[in-house]
Amino acid sequence: MTWTEILCILLVPTGFGLFAIGYFQRNGKVPRNSIFGTKTRATTASHRAWIAGNLAASPYSYMQGTLCIVGGLIGFVLYSPDSPFAMFTIGAVVILILVIAGFQVARATSAAEHADGKNTP
């Protein structure tokens, strides 16, 4: 088994884990300052900010989970030792996940700041 196949296989459970994190974020079940929540200076400021920030971040966790599952399945199903398609798929998935994570942090920070009444128009 090659490292590319291993990475494709590992993307799928990672995606399901991100779905679980998104579910817990959506329902306010992520304990404050947990490693699974979206931690920023604004979200850790108060309990209210933590809940609001993680609620706002939950759709991005679902998007990342979907990308992991789809990317892992596509890379694994269409993998061929002669084709770089699986490696390209993994690279594209990782880059998209990092881009989405940036938007996730920005959205969580904004929601947390508004939850505590800061920067409110």
Strand and helix map with partners:
Blueprint: H1 3-26, H2 47-77, H3 85-115
Helix pairs in contact: 1-2, 2-3
Pfam families: SdpI
Transmembrane segments: 6-24, 60-79, 85-106
Organism: Flaviflexus ciconiae
Describe this structure as you would to a colleague.
The chain has helices spanning 3-26, 47-77, 85-115. The protein has 121 residues and is an all-alpha fold. It has one domain. Helix 1 (3-26) runs antiparallel to helix 2 and helix 2 runs antiparallel to helix 3 (85-115). The model has no long low-confidence stretch (mean pLDDT 89).
Q: Can you give keywords for this protein?
A:
single chain; 121 residues; mainly alpha; elongated; transmembrane helix; SdpI/YhfL; transmembrane; membrane
Amino-to-carboxy terminus distance: 56 Å
Fraction of residues in helices?
over 70%
Rg from C-alpha positions? 17 Å
- Structural class by secondary-structure content: mainly alpha
Question: Could you give a short account of the major beta sheet?
Answer: none
Transmembrane segments: 6-24, 60-79, 85-106
InterPro entries: SdpI/YhfL
Organism: Flaviflexus ciconiae
Pfam family, one: SdpI
